[in-house]
Amino acid sequence: MTDPTRPRANREATLDAVQEPAGRKQRTSQRRADIVTAAARIFADKGYGNVGMRDIAEAVGIRGASLYHHFSSKEEILYAICLSVTREPVEENLPLLDAAGTPTERLTNLIRAHIRHLLHRRVEYRVGQHERTSLTPEHLAEIDGYLQYYNQRVKDVLAAGMRSGEFRTMNPKLAALGILDMLNGVSNWIRGTADEVADTYVHLLLDGLSPGPADSRDA
After folding, report:
1. CA 210 – CA 166 distance, rounded (Å)
2. Which end of the chain is more exposed for a tag (fewer CB within 10 A), N or C?
3. What gap in Å lies between CA 201 and CA 174, rounded to an integer?
């Protein structure tokens, strides 16, 4: 609690000292984000193997030494790019599968969120798809872990929908892989608003999952 008996100037100086680390942390976080975004564009255009740290520093408009203050290597930048399209969806999208609603409603919300994230991270998705094998084994294992967990959660909601009769019976693991592969392919061409794309993919995917007359007879 601030001591009201202290001179105003001293109190403000103390407040500035407390706030400065938080502000510096925010600036550092923003600079790292700028580096990741710029590096993703260069990796997508030229290929990861054809880009050096100097190229990334020039694209961001900083000195090479400053770049190393934020990332120790080019591979660490690639790792950050891959996290943005694996860990982020796990943290931001998967809670939708834990919300109230039928499997159809929860899967619909996930598809829409996934496509919105694809639009936001379109370049990063392309880089992650094509360049993640350049990661160290430890980093690659972590990235693959996020992908496998995401796939598992989609498989689980599909299986729930099959049990409830909302979805036709099929191999839920293959269905999840097919759906996510179809959605992630959007990153190669999506532009502008994600709403029309999301609407189209929701109808396309859910129509394909809906039970037909043959499924009713087999039940």
Report:
1. 6
2. N
3. 18
| Structure token digits, residue 183 | 């959605």
Helices and strands, counts by H and E, the chain: 11, 0
Q: Which residue type occupies 88?
A: E
Per-residue confidence of the chain (219 residues) as pLDDT tens digits?
A: 334 334 444 444 444 444 446 676 777 788 899 999 999 999 999 999 999 999 999 988 888 788 998 999 999 999 999 999 999 999 999 999 999 999 999 999 999 999 999 989 999 999 999 999 999 999 999 999 999 999 999 999 999 999 999 999 999 999 999 999 999 988 888 776 788 888 999 999 999 898 865 555 454
Could you tell me where the DSSP H helices lie in 71-190? 74-84, 87-92, 103-120, 122-131, 137-164, 172-184
Tokens standing for residue 82: 């891959």
Alpha-carbon distance of 200 to 189, in angstroms, equals: 15
Residue 102: how many CA atoms within 13 Å on its side-chain side? 11
User: Against a cut of 0.70, is the pTM above it?
Assistant: yes
CB-CB contact of 92 with 75 (8 Å): no
Question: 134 by DSSP, 3-state: which?
Answer: helix
Contact 80, 63 (CB under 8 A): no
Q: Which residues contact 4 (CB under 8 A, 6 or more apart)?
A: none
Hey, is 93 helix, strand or coil? coil
**Residue-wise over 85-104: b if at least 16 C-beta within 10 A, else e?**
bbbebbeebbebbeeeeebb
User: In whole angstroms, what separates CA 65 from the centre of its chain?
Assistant: 29
